[in-house]
Specification:
Elements lengths: L3 E2 L6 H5 L4 E2 L6 E2 L6 H6 L5 H4 L1 H14 L5 E6 L1 H10 L7 H9 L1 H25 L3 E6 L7 H19 L6 E5 L16 E3 L6 H12 L4 E6 L8 H15 L4 E5 L9 H13 L10
């Protein structure tokens, strides 16, 4: 592999902020979800070295094992996605309560997002201190927002994470699921890399980001994870097709979402091999 991502549970930060977390067989549950302003203001700042030190320990161990030539990617939920789980109290089902909060209690929603952003920045700083060379925010529920909602609530919160993070030498990746309608807004977060799912055309994303941002932004993605459940030939063809969309320049070849649990290991290997062997046009550029 060209890199290793430390994919720690999204709810680690919520638990560290004071929400009791239980993980039964049916999936994670936060037993005291956020339903009013008092609950928002009861959330606590936390010391990542004490409350989430196990993540730093894992990163140090992985860095030691992987060696200096394989970058380790730190990971956290984007503010809106973590807020959805903190409001709903679980990671399954809909996010109707969270969306209603945006409409009926916008100031409360913004305060919650800001508190999450500040905590997330500290959490990621601790991962960088442990050896993470890149960080990624994962915004599973971004696509549920209209562009106006995203610009009002999530964009400033995500930008706050990156601004508070510091470490300008550390590349910042933002994955926003279902974000084709948000492409013109995403550069405003300050991310260096925009990761898109399989529903966004990579060539169109490159053109849009180039026109809107005025700066070079790399792309990550975006092969449909379900393709890795099929024949190896289709896996190899999909990897090549993704590379051809960008010419392989300013592009991190990846899946358009997490790998599925039932994916055959041989197909995962075929995807990586196909990416390394993909033909790249000699005159490809970011322009």
């Amino acid at each position: 592999m060209d890199a290793v991502i430390v994919f720690s549970d999204i709810l680690i930060v919520a638990e560290a902020m004071g929400l009791p977390l239980d993980v039964p067989d049916s999936g994670p549950v936060l037993s005291s979800p956020i339903r009013d302003l008092a609950a928002v203001r009861r959330l606590r700042d936390f010391d990542p070295s004490r409350e989430t030190g196990f993540v730093g320990d894992a990163i140090r161990a992985i860095c030691k094992e992987a060696g200096p030539d394989v970058p380790v990617i730190g990971f956290a939920a984007a503010p809106w996605t973590l807020a959805c789980y903190m409001i709903e109290g679980q990671t399954r089902g809909d996010i109707s309560r969270a969306k209603e909060m945006l409409r009926s209690e916008p100031q409360m929603a913004q305060e919650l997002l800001e508190r999450i952003a500040r905590a997330t920045a500290l959490y990621l700083q601790s991962q960088i201190a442990a050896g993470a060379a890149v960080i990624q925010l994962f915004d599973t529920w971004a696509g549920e927002l209209s562009r106006a909602e995203y610009d009002t609530f999530e964009l400033p919160a995500t930008k706050m994470v990156y601004d508070l993070l510091g470490h300008p030498q550390v590349p910042k990746i933002l994955f926003a699921k279902g974000s084709a309608h948000l492409l013109e807004s995403l550069p405003g977060t300050g991310a260096n890399v925009i990761s898109v799912d399989w529903r966004t055309d990579l060539a169109e994303a490159r053109a849009t980001l180039g026109q809107m941002s005025g700066r070079r932004i790399a792309l990550q993605g975006n092969v449909d994870p379900n393709i890795l459940l099929g024949p190896e030939q289709a896996v190899r063809e999909s990897a090549q097709a993704a590379v051809e969309k960008t010419g392989g320049v300013g592009h991190i070849l990846n899946l358009g979402h997490g790998i599925l649990p039932t994916t055959p290991v041989e197909n995962a290997k075929a995807f990586v091999a196909a990416g390394k062997l993909a033909r790249v046009p000699s005159r490809a550029s970011l322009a």
